[in-house]
Amino acid sequence: MLARTNPAPKKPNPVDVQVGARIRFRRNILGISQETLAAHLGITFQQVQKYEKGTNRVGASRLQAISEALKVPPSHFFDNAEGVADTSGGEANDVMSFVASAEGIALNRAFARIEDATTRQRIVSLVKAIASAAVAA
């Protein structure tokens, strides 16, 4: 008789991870907690966590409800528009992680309130110079 071995844990599908990351990103941009989104959907916040991690796949009807709650079309969770990270790894993943963090959200909200395009460009140049100096050090 062959001994049973535990199979390696199943990795989430990259599309499910991308959809989850986009849900988390949009939820954070709107300042909505997992609990609030969950209550709107009639599910637990733990289920929202699983969706956001890509552990659980989001069904079509649930994705429609999430898109309505987050005020975006369902296609938003699949688009890989310019400047939006895909979840295949590398630098794009790092950028998406930062943008979805509390610091990234605060920075983006503050930056968006700057109306003068020249000032915004100068801030971008300053940040690039600081980052380049940090890498060179």
From TrEMBL:
Ranges where the HTH cro/C1-type domain occurs: 23-77
Output the Pfam families linked to this UniProt entry: HTH_3
Q: Gene3D superfamilies of this UniProt entry? A: lambda repressor-like DNA-binding domains
Q: Which domain of life is it from?
A: Bacteria
The record's section on CDD domains has:
HTH_XRE (cd00093)
Q: Know the name of this protein?
A: Helix-turn-helix transcriptional regulator
Q: Which organism is it from?
A: Sinorhizobium chiapasense
